[in-house]
Amino acid sequence: MSKRMSDPKNETAAFDPKPFLRTLTEEPGVYRMIGADDKVLYVGKAKNLKRRVSSYFQKTVSSPRIAMMVAQVQRVDITATRSEAEALILENNLIKSLAPRYNILFRDDKTYPYIELSADEYPRLAYHRGAFTKGARYFGPFPNAWAVRESIHLLQKTFQLRTCENTVFANRSRPCLLHQIKRCTAPCVGLIEPQAYAADVKLATRFLDGQANEVIDDLSTRMQAAADRLAFEEAAACRDQVRVLQAVLHKQFVDSRKDEDVDVLAAIEEDGMTCVNIAMVRGGRHLGDRPQFPSGAAVSGAADSLLAFVEQHYSQHPIPARILVNLAPEAVKETLAEITDRPPGVVSPRFAAEKAWMEMAEKNARLAIQARARDTGRIEQRLDALRDALGMDEAPQRIECFDISHTMGEATVASCVVCEAGAMKRAEYRRYNISGITPGDDFAAMRQALERRYGKVAAGEGVCPDLILIDGGKGQVSAARAILAEVGLESVAMVGVAKGEGRKAGLETLIFPDGREGLALGGESAALHLIVEIRDEAHRFAITGHRAKRGKARVGSKLEDIPGVGPSRRRSLLAAFGGLDGVRDATVEDLCRVDGVSRKLAEQIYAALH
């Protein structure tokens, strides 16, 4: 259901919200603040549209930014949804497509890592990013990958849970190295009973849930009971587990001495930049922090950025029992009340440990601002140097680079990487599988890749770059120029990057499509450093794709040549052993355990691969 309210007789008249608010639904949904010329000023979501939209039109508003936005509103459009989840999806889509002036945006929080405990009979401990799998348990989020891996290492050392993939686990015939160094109890070969493994999983789960002190108490009790019945090896194992956990808890720089989950949010505005730093405390352990920088807002201070971060982050991630903030605790409470029916405690730091956490978070936010300022200056310097070196009118903001990779003409792959404002945009990288050309013809491969890329750009389906880099010499540059001319993009700046003598870095020559003499900038050039960095990334991306394609082709051909191994059995073999290397390393007995593989066929497969 969509609804809009305005004065049809006079679009420039001041917006009167009262008639509109009286009829507004209390369902969840998305609202859009519309200004002059139907320009979308702001997009937001609400679990109660009437209450949320009404808050913008009170006598006192939450910030100067909101006051400035409300003064420009000429109408409000709403779309009611069936659930808050639908409202979140719609809001994200509208923000991406409309780019509203007054929305404060942070990088997608889905990139936070988690610890996964699988739902298998012998649960697997794993590092996880992305969508959750039904049945598995997830602990987090963690501020960075290092914190996850350190925690997994601790859990391995203490509880010895398995971390191997299921395909490896299902095909082990003897314990692996992790068992030998006492990091796994080897459930794959039955060296631990299911009940004992389940007990270790339960302890690890309690530890991840923040019950570290209770886990230590339980282990201490178990240790004493084992000692009383003279089971000294079991008692020693419990003692070692207790020591590891106590060492971890005692080495914290700031220890709350409580098994609590707390997020520490510090919003700092300095040198014209704003940073919101989130520090995570789980089970009393300070796991580190993660600075976030807002973008896309016309006016944003520290308080506004903090509220925007709270709304975006906690709409997608679990909310801890307490949140410490350095600004606007009451406003944060109100924002969280819109997200959850059971908002956490939100307070400013009061006790010594809380103040120490906040001091650390604020200090790291300031350091992040300083580092960002240095990086911004360095990026601008490199882009300006590139502009001067190539004789461009303006520094290129979007650079695309192409490379071709193959082995004697086999499995040819072209790559396109994107650098925007001096930073690599990995989400926009593309690979092109090249076909229908003479094997080894790099010129034809380059023509095909450019035609596929810029044919769409010419048709209005993509973003046109300011500069195109070609990894190659005059031949590749000529091929590229011809394609750009065909699609009407010959005005786009382009340059080839020819490798120097002996392929030594710093000796590259820039090749121009207009016949100018090649330019050697020298190893000290900031412009060349940027070009080589982008070129090397294109080369890495191309060769990774080429190796994957070549490996897939060779796997398929070797197994396809074996009589009796059709597509179904081939898929089963590769899945069971994790690829051709695993199939090759398998014994005849291992191969017989795969569904549909008889001993005779297993012997044929083994003979064909050895």
What does it look like?
It contains 20 helices and 19 strands. It is globular and about 85 Å long. With 610 residues, it is of the alpha+beta class. The longest helix has 39 residues, at 352-390. The chain has helices at 17-22, 49-54, 64-71, 84-98, 145-159, 166-169, 177-180, 194-208, 212-228, 232-250, 302-314, 329-339, 352-390, 442-458, 474-486, 526-560, 567-577, 580-585, 588-592, 599-608; strands at 2-5, 29-34, 40-46, 75-80, 114-117, 125-128, 137-139, 262-270, 273-282, 285-292, 322-325, 345-347, 398-407, 410-420, 423-424, 430-433, 467-471, 493-498, 509-511. The strands form four sheets. Strands 13, 14, 15, 16, 17, 18 and 19 form a seven-stranded mixed beta sheet that branches. A five-stranded mixed beta sheet has the order 10-9-8-11-12, with helices on both faces. A four-stranded antiparallel beta sheet has the order 1-4-2-3. Mean pLDDT is 81; it is low at 5-12 and 250-256. α13 (352-390) packs across α16 (526-560). β2 and β3 form a beta hairpin.
Short description:
The protein has 610 residues and is α+β, with helices and mostly antiparallel strands.
